[in-house]
Amino acid sequence: MNGKLIILGLGALALAGCATGMSEAESRQKALAMMKRDFQSRGIAGIDRLNEDEVQKACNEYHNNPPKEVAERLQTAQMAAIKFPADGQLLGDWKEGEKLAQSGRGMTWSDSPGSPNGGNCYNCHQLSPKELSYGTIGPSLYRYGKIRGNSPEIQRYTYGRIYNAKAYSLCSNMPRFGHVGALTEQQIKHLVALLLDPQSPVNH
Ligand code: HEC
Fold it and tell me: Is 78 inside any structural domain?
């Protein structure tokens, strides 16, 4: 008698699951529709920011672990879209870079169009040892240049990484600063200098 009851109970659960259950794709669609309904554009912060591009879509759908061929195809396209400076000069002024790394300003509804953004690097990375407040989502970049040197290859890698981290690791948590136009070419050069210049506090 008890045994039968349990079996019946399980059957009812399974049925209920089918009746209300949504596939993951369906619930994603529903959540997205809800956000598009409830969020509003204000100033420069438009709801177009809710639209996923191909990379975000693949990373979300595959829980940050897309099949190898998907990851390779998308990563190659991201890499090809990196615009390296036409003048071939990748190093700016590390002092400006430090200010950018410190600043998390920009892109909110109260910012005016075209006002410069910060890089927000300390939110995820340790850089200069003088700054005691930093996040740890990303690896420490303290002594980055001291460890890697300042060769043309390292300069190019560092510029590219800041421009578009997803060209190197598709589902990276690091924002694509150059790719999305959050930072300008000149600002990225200042940040490369912050990481590589021997005078920069990062390398002391
Ligand atoms: C939201 C977190 C986040 C922010 C903000 C962020 N990063 Fe990153 N960064 C990461 C993560 C995570 C990694 C580890 C590798 C990866 O996933 O791409 C990384 C890796 C890097 C690397 C490669 C390190 C290596 O050893 O090769 C560099 C260079 C870098 N970040 C520079 C910066 C700079 C400069 C800024 C500011 C403009 C910045 N990051 C802002 C999360 C972040």
Answer: yes
